[in-house]
Amino acid sequence: MPDPLTPYGNKPMVTPIVNAVNYEYKSFDVLRQITDGEIDGYTYHRDDNPTVRAVEKKIARMEGSEDCIVCTTGMAACSMVYFTYLKAGDHLILFHDIYGAHYKVSLILERMGIEITWLDASECDAIERHIKPSTSMIFCETPSNPLCKIIDIEKTAAIAKKHNILFIVDNTFATPYHQKPLEFGAHMVVHSATKALGGHNDLMAGAIACNKADYEKLWFTRQALGTTLDAYSASLLERGLKTFDMRAERMAHNAMAMAEFLKGHPKISKTFYPGLVDDPGHAVASRQMKNGFCGMLAFNVGNSQEDAKNFITNLETIYHAVSLGSTETLICIPYLTTMLYLPPERRVGFGVEKNTVRLSAGIDKTGLLIDDLKQALDKI
């Protein structure tokens, strides 16, 4: 069967977008070879797609994994991990410092008979105290969302290994440019590829970097649930990866500059960024991160949510929008946006305040961003 990615006998510079839902078989023997795994081939889009497969292989190389499975969204990736490896009676350890939509998924998991313990990322040194005989998974995000708290991946991986527990790391904030959790002992790495991997606010996708055996298990879940990414979004994601390193480097540079500016500003009561030497997570981040400390930071503005709102309203270069990791610099109030999924009392129980803002550095000129922060703060 001709390779759909090399239709002319040579390789195009851009991976072709294969929109086919189904594929013609040249013979029953070819069908058998494909279904038996003897040859690469495609049957139905829900099973696999050559454009999607191309981007999976590239993300696997970036994370240093044997394989990768790409799906429709970041939360689809996280949910696929939960549904593949958890069963009724299991115990899951999660952290409050994680994207808010996990709370909704946790309600579904609890209905399925899965017990969940929520910890603050600052409690990671005491994580072993919360392990039970039924604990089967630890799932964390580091740096965390939105306060950029740091969890020691190597230490947590050692605890997980000791107790035969799966340890999953969401690497969306850090990206593989700054951090490779598999090198420190994590079992799998998940991404909202919507964010920095794609980088242009024009696609939604999720990714799970893993070994071959886990790829097969996760593939079964994806095929069953129908969360295979469409070919066009896969093509956009692959295009984003071509400039990923340059964007990640610039974003981290801008984030560091803005964190240093904000830390000394009289209208900023607290700044959260692991690149700052007095940040509680700096020492661990320095060991497990490289090439900088990512493009994400958070800070508390003034004394009230109205102060934070007025500050954001007065920004001229920085965009008031959710999401992160894009070419544009984005800012939002987590209490009103990314954490809206949580009950009000859950939004502020681990350090987030009503006037906490989360900032995702883009690739703008650094001076323009500092000037924008300064003029907006001067107006509150």
Structure description:
The protein has 380 residues and is α/β, with parallel strands linked by helices. It has two domains: 28-242, Type I PLP-dependent aspartate aminotransferase-like (Major domain) (Aspartate Aminotransferase, domain 2); 244-377, Aspartate Aminotransferase, domain 1, CATH 3.90.1150.10. It is built from 13 helices and twelve strands. It has helices spanning 28-35, 50-63, 74-85, 101-111, 153-162, 175-178, 212-225, 231-242, 244-263, 282-288, 305-313, 344-347, 366-377; strands at 67-71, 91-95, 115-119, 135-141, 166-170, 188-192, 206-210, 268-272, 296-301, 319-320, 330-332, 356-360. It has a seven-stranded mixed beta sheet with strand order 1-7-6-5-4-2-3, sandwiched between helices. It has a five-stranded mixed beta sheet with strand order 8-9-12-11-10. The longest helix is centred in the C-terminal third of the chain and has 20 residues, at 244-263. The protein is globular. The protein starts with 27 loop residues before the first helix and ends with a helix. The mean pLDDT is 95.
